[in-house]
Specification:
heterodimer; A: 235 residues; alpha/beta; six-stranded mixed sheet; 39% helix; B: 317 residues; mainly alpha; two-stranded antiparallel ribbon
């Protein structure tokens, strides 16, 4: 589904991502773990075209998307939940959701089905559909941000540190939802610092350190890995 | 309901004004409506997060284009107003590919510089443009009939209001709101940021060109000094700030208020009105930083609908 080959990304003269290759298969949830500054967000921004200073190949469904504008990539079926939750606080929950589909022709036709799909996964959003987004709690707003991304009928959902700023119980809730989304024909790319929770969602993961992939394995093996245990799980 | 009644009443007053006022009052309202349209067009661009200082430039381009084709080529004056709008929009379209890559202060400074560049170019093409002394029309539009001119300006101001409302009620509104709040989020919602910026830039510039054309035909002359005067930039901005930005009502209220006050002050102390004018702006910026309309509007919202939602403030920031 997503295939990255020999990707190099830099900000001006400072190179951040070094010769990175990775892939996401159909209906797979893949994690990118790493400390602050490892290049997780940079990698995501490069994939969805927010950074243009990059070399290498990024293929989505066999099609080269390196060099395309962000809105073109989004229209091909990639959705992003940005790190900062970006909602329209003075619009209702439902309006916020509809906006997720408003600028994508394909999703506009499927707006009703997608709304039902999102409400199924996040019943709280249905309950509060008439409430202003800004009046909801942080956790609910994060769910709304995920819901809005799902409104664009994505094949691949990218989440940039969705756990940031949420209390642990909410992170658990949110990640349970990700497991439900995974069952619905949507691939997931999850960038996280919260490795312990992240490992419960993903099928396979990469560990990114200093812009290079240090480790790649399936979730089970990563949990047992000594480096992961020491550096990220504190065991 | 009450809101609709007020709007209806205002429309009726605007339409019947010539029936019970003299030439002097009509003239004042004509110039207020000119500035009202400019103020709205500036605000529409600001809603995308781009602070444009090019208002006077596109105003002047439209004025020149429409006057020159009448003087040099004998065009119909009414038709030439449209040419003024189209010309400004066309230039904005071409320049948009360059200046809309810029953001914040760089965009502001570049658009201000463009205004100056336009005026220098026009000054130096003296064969066609009349150089520094400009061009004079044989007669003002409608032979200078103040009632007809008032209705013409009213149509232009009405057009500006309608465009502004269409912008607020269509998909454009959420796109430009998203762009202003965070371009990254806008892009990741599938919004073609450049396309929307270009669309708003071209349409507001065309509107400014139309206003300029009407203004030039009202006074029957153009010259670089007064046609590209920064008054056509600073007054509209002041009006929008006083009334309240990011809304249709704000610039309308600001234009009416500042327009009427400055006219009154001119009567009691010539030129002294500029001091008072400045003081009003300072007062509003210091004590009602969100403008008169937005401040009142928010008070009403807080007490009636959303019960003091803090996020509502940050959102419309």
């Amino acid at each position: 589904m997503l295939e990255i080959n020999n990707l190099n990304v830099s900000y001006g003269k400072i190179q951040v991502i070094w010769n990175l290759s990775m892939e996401i298969k159909e209906n797979e949830a893949v994690g990118i773990f790493g400390p602050n500054g490892a290049g997780k967000s940079t990698l995501i921004n490069a994939i969805i075209g927010l950074i243009n200073n990059k070399e290498g190949s990024i293929k989505f469904n066999e099609e080269e998307i390196n060099g395309l504008e962000t809105h073109q990539i989004i229209k091909k079926g990639v959705a992003l939940v940005p790190q900062k939750r970006e909602l329209f606080p003075i619009m209702t929950v439902k309006e916020n959701l509809k906006l997720g589909a408003a600028y994508i022709p394909k999703a506009r036709d499927e707006i009703e089905q997608n709304l039902e799909f999102v409400y199924n996964i996040f019943p709280i959003l249905k309950e509060r559909e008439k409430q202003l987004a800004g009046t909801m709690s942080g956790g609910q707003q994060r769910m709304l941000a995920v819901g809005r991304a799902l409104m664009s009928s994505p094949k691949l959902l990218i989440l940039d540190e969705p756990s940031v700023g949420l209390q642990p119980s909410l992170v658990t809730d949110l990640f349970k939802k990700l497991n439900e989304i995974k069952k619905e024909d949507v691939s997931i790319l999850l960038a996280e610092q919260n490795v312990k929770q992240g490992l419960k969602v993903i099928d396979r993961g990469y560990v990114l350190e200093n812009g290079k992939i240090e480790l790649e394995d399936d979730a089970e093996n990563l949990t047992k890995n000594e480096h992961i245990q020491k550096s990220y799980l504190g065991i | 309901m009450r809101k609709n009644l007020i709007i209806l009443l205002l429309i009726v007053i605007a339409l019947t004004l010539p029936l019970y006022t003299g030439v002097y009052i009509l003239h004042i309202f004509s110039s207020i409506l000119i500035f009202l349209a400019l103020s709205l067009s500036w605000d529409m661009m600001l809603r995308t997060g781009q602070l444009s200082f090019g208002t006077a430039g596109f105003f002047g381009l439209g004025a020149y284009a429409s006057v020159l084709i009448v003087v040099n080529m004998g065009f119909n004056p009414i038709l030439s107003l449209l040419i003024g709008a189209i010309f400004s929009g066309f230039i904005a379209f071409i320049l948009g590919f360059i200046v809309l890559r810029l953001r914040e202060i760089y965009f502001a400074i570049t658009t201000l510089a463009l205004t100056h560049v336009f005026s220098v170019i026009i000054r130096n093409f003296s064969d066609f443009t009349g150089g520094a002394s400009g061009k004079i029309l044989a007669s003002a539009i409608f032979e200078g009939d103040p009632v007809k001119i008032y209705y013409l300006v009213l149509i232009v101001a009405g057009l500006a209001i309608i465009i502004s409302e269409v912008f607020k009620r269509s998909r454009i509104h959420y796109a430009i709101n998203a762009i202003r709040n965070d371009e990254t989020t806008a892009k990741s919602s599938g919004i073609d940021v450049f396309k929307y910026l270009l669309f708003v830039f071209v349409s507001t510039s065309a509107l400014q060109g139309l206003v300029g054309a009407v203004y030039a035909h009202q006074y029957a002359f153009v010259n670089p000094e007064s046609t590209f005067s920064l008054n056509f930039l600073l007054l509209p901005i002041a009006m929008a700030l006083v009334g309240g930005i990011y809304s249709t009502n704000g610039p309308i209220i600001g234009a009416l208020l500042l327009g009427l006050i400055s006219e009154y002050l001119k009567l009691i102390m010539p030129y002294g009105h500029l001091i008072v004018y400045g003081l009003i702006i300072v007062f509003v910026v210091l004590f009602l930083p969100r403008g008169i309309y937005s401040t009142i509007h928010n008070k009403l919202l807080k007490s009636n609908i959303i019960g003091g939602d803090k996020n509502a403030n940050t959102a419309s920031k």
